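Fold it.
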Amino acid sequence: MKIIAHGIDLVDFGRIEQMLSRHGEHFLRRVFTARELADADAVKNRIEKLSGRFAAKEAVMKLVGTGWRDGIAWTDIEVVNNALGRPVVAISGRLKELADRDGIEQITLSITHTSQFAIASAVAFAAVQPAQP
């Protein structure tokens, strides 16, 4: 496997709180999957969890390089934790089509928080093609 793209994003918790205040459930349903919302509701600091997931989605979009257009939805990216607590990303829909087109076979993700910010880093990998004789 070789690294073919990287994306990173930083989110201020206040930004997510502001979006919730302005748009409430509409914002949540537009950006997060049902599983992501359930995971956020199960932790003590919901804003921290939502901010981390938001940053992760932005980081994934940056590594694909298309932005939020061309039929891509926020929910085409789902970020959950595996059994060990490590964040993992699943992509679907139009975003999956574009990632497949670009040869992205795997995306790894890292998320961290401070008292006010969440940052996420996403790395895309592709299989190394054997050398042609």
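The mean pLDDT is 93.
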